[in-house]
Design a protein that fits this description.
Layout: H1 5-20, E1 24-31, E2 36-42, E3 57-61, H2 73-90, E4 101-105, H3 110-122
Antiparallel strand pairs: 1-2, 3-4
Helix pairs in contact: 1-2
């Protein structure tokens, strides 16, 4: 995967995550043209729950969220996206925006960890056939 200038900024900031937060370790990760995949290992994680029944596989928003605990996943991702955005805008890409949500999943065992690692490592090879690849993206006309 050849990174654009924006991708280079995102990669550099992602790698700083574990330097800034000693409780966080980076595992497998990859920057794609329109998203990022990564495994964060959070030692002494704080679980932020805004509902009683919390899924271990969910979409999480980094906008308009109640105060998040220090070193929680939501705070880590929110700060990462904020720092990246500032650097990207300074580089002249003033129209850049993140999706307001991110997808997270708790990895509970070695088998799952290895499966997710494999998915991340193989993801760039699948980009050519991805529905969001510019050559594959088609705007569907709605018939009313």
């Amino acid at each position: 995967m050849q990174l654009s200038q924006i991708g280079e900024i995102v990669a550099e900031e992602w790698q700083k995550t574990s330097q800034i937060r000693p409780c966080v370790q980076l595992d497998a990760w990859v920057i794609m043209p329109n998203h990022i995949h990564g495994i964060l290992i959070i030692n002494n994680p704080l679980v932020e729950t805004f509902r009683r029944n919390v899924s271990t596989h969910r979409n999480v928003s980094t906008n308009n969220v109640p105060r998040l605990q220090s070193n929680s996943l939501g705070l880590i991702i929110g700060q990462f996206k904020s720092v990246c955005s500032k650097q990207i805008w300074i580089a002249g890409f003033t129209e850049f925006k993140w999706q307001t949500r991110f997808h997270d999943s708790i990895i509970r065992d070695e088998e799952s960890l290895n499966r997710v690692r494999k998915y991340i490592i193989n993801n760039p090879a699948k980009w050519e056939s991805d529905k969001h690849h510019p050559e594959n993206f088609r705007i569907q006309k709605r018939n009313h």
